[in-house]
Amino acid sequence: MKLLVPVKRVLDYNVKPRVKADGSGVDLANVKMSMNPFDEIAVEEAIRLKEKGVATEVVVVSIGEPKAQDTLRTALAMGADRAILITSDVRPEPLGVAKLLAKVVEEEQPQLVILGKQAIDDDNNQTGQMLAALLGWGQGTFASKVEVEGDTAHVTREVDGGLETVALPLPAIVTTDLRLNEPRYASLPNIMKAKSKPLAQKTPADYGVDLTPRITVLKVEEPAKRAAGIKVDSVDALVDKIKSLGVIA
Amino acid sequence: MSVLVLVEQLDGRVKDATLATLTAAAKLGDITALVAGHGDAATQAADAVAKVAGVSKVLLANDPAYANLLAENVAALVVPLMADHDAFLANATSIGKNVAPRVAALLDVMQVSDIVAVESADTFVRPIYAGNAVATVRSSDAKKVITVRATGFEKAATEGGNAAVEPVAAPGDQGKSRFVGAETQESARPELTSAAVIVSGGRALGSEEQFHALIEPLADKLGAAVGASRAAVDAGFAPNDYQVGQTGKIVAPDVYVAVGISGAIQHLAGMKDSKTIIAINKDEDAPIFQVADVGLVGDLFQILPELTEKL
Ligand SMILES: Cc1cc2nc3c(=O)[nH]c(=O)nc-3n(C[C@H](O)[C@H](O)[C@H](O)COP(=O)(O)OP(=O)(O)OC[C@H]3O[C@@H](n4cnc5c(N)ncnc54)[C@H](O)[C@@H]3O)c2cc1C
Ligand SMILES: Nc1ncnc2c1ncn2[C@@H]1O[C@H](COP(=O)(O)O)[C@@H](O)[C@H]1O
Q1: Alpha carbon of B238 to ligand 1 centroid (Å)
Q2: Over the stretch A170-195, which tens digit does the pLDDT of each residue have?
Q3: Is the CB of residue B267 below 6 angstroms from any atom belonging to ligand 1?
Q4: Predicted ipTM of the assembly
Q5: Is the distance from the beta carbon of residue A13 to the nearest atom of ligand 1 less than 6 Å?
Q6: Do B178 and A167 touch (CB under 8 A)?
Q7: pLDDT tens track for B44-75
Q8: In chain B, positions 3-62, which contact chain A (CB-CB < 8 Å)?
Q9: Among A127, A199, B31, B293, which is disulfide-ready with A94 (CB 3.0 to 4.6 Å)?
Q10: Residue ranges per domain, chain B?
């Protein structure tokens, strides 16, 4: 069975985001960009399913600027088999991404699509659920464990009260949480090999999908700064501070 | 504007997150509260939410299909109801985040996630980039689908309302997913997202035993909920639902005590709106001190027992 993994190129999680002076957004010029960390986990999970013999092919797809190609090459170096790059001038929103992915699914017929639970730039946490809705499939979101048996996926989900397990008839959607796995690093030989793996280039028009945004960003600001605090030099001083807050029962 | 709000309840009590969402909804218009669930708890929750100030109608879908609020089933219930409503609001909780985007896509609407303020009927404020930036966004969709971050809104009063409860036809199980089981921990502590005081431990606690032995007694003294950094959860010191941060729980208690937590941006994203932040860390340059109101530099293994003792 085939697996599809959508990956997004985002500001590297170690880089402190800077708001642009004109309030139009976060400055992405000349800063390190990487694969969304949750998508690395998704790629890793797909590769493990292939290594276990559950899956036969892992296809990765990214929608965005031409440089998203680097992100796809990273996924190929980790072990994905082939890639699809859909280049778009507008920054696509989750709804548009989900519509494009639904078309890719129609074409590729994967049994499982594994996405990240959220892209750490816009923190939307929507695309997987939207794709599941558009396809009429079941969804196992925020997964910390995925087991495929026959035509069913058992997904353990990280929820507010602990963990929860659902069974989904395939085909289905999974979105990854942090503790699903620890993604591998690509080895140098695999990075070299990835350069010759197939990467198809497409546009949203090829799929007949309109990406016109529904949401306008009016302004982006720095969050309110916290006033500078103090350091105390002893436990006794800390005890006094805590007592002054009036929180002791 | 007519607003449909998905209610979350526990044992018949309306969850605090929903009370915050109801406050956000009141800024948009007339509120219909939707209780989907199964059994007496659902009925009790419907009666309870009917009393919340500002709720004008309650719809109750009492059916086994909603016992676990599976997104596939709840979305199938909500979408037809949206013919009569202009906005759908859910909590930015693991339930709301699972259900709302499914509803949005079925309505062909781009969801506005995690709002912390309502500027007008179509304009909302939401943090992006782990709270390192705050965006004001306008939705051009005719209907709005929104998730609400509880820390942005006061809780609605649980008294003062007198809405009628109406049963609503349930489309039932969609057969797209099946609930197998849950591992939830019963705890006598206050819930993390609504606690007034939180004590959180990080990687520095070193083991599950030490996490319990040092963090819990301090939390007991303070009547606090217990949280953790991702590193502490990954290492197995604390369960996953303790994680505070960009991708865990967002909290804003009166007092947040961070013990042996460095203060990575992903952790700060989840707690930097706390009223008072207290940090204990042996590294005086740890980033947590940049947001802390009160800091104590030193070894937590010495400080915590002494602190707990003296409080
Ligand atoms: C996609 C993504 C999402 C993430 N989401 C989250 C999230 O939601 N929440 C989250 O917390 N993290 C999250 N992280 C992880 C985050 O980047 C940090 O790795 C994590 O917060 C570090 O946890 P920590 O502070 O406990 O550990 P460390 O960074 O290792 O810090 C330990 C601290 O303890 C101090 N210390 C050590 N020994 C002692 C002692 N004896 N006494 C006192 N102090 C001591 C050290 O000085 C240090 O500051 C995420 C990361 C990624 C990539
Ligand atoms: N532009 C994109 N290209 C490919 N995948 C994407 C894109 N945007 C979102 N995704 C996928 O959807 C997940 C959730 O993103 P979001 O809903 O934006 O938080 C990501 O982790 C990716 O797996």
Answers
A1: 13
A2: 999 999 999 999 999 999 999 999 99
A3: yes
A4: 0.96
A5: yes
A6: yes
A7: 999 999 999 999 999 999 999 999 999 999 99
A8: none
A9: A127
A10: 2-167, 197-310
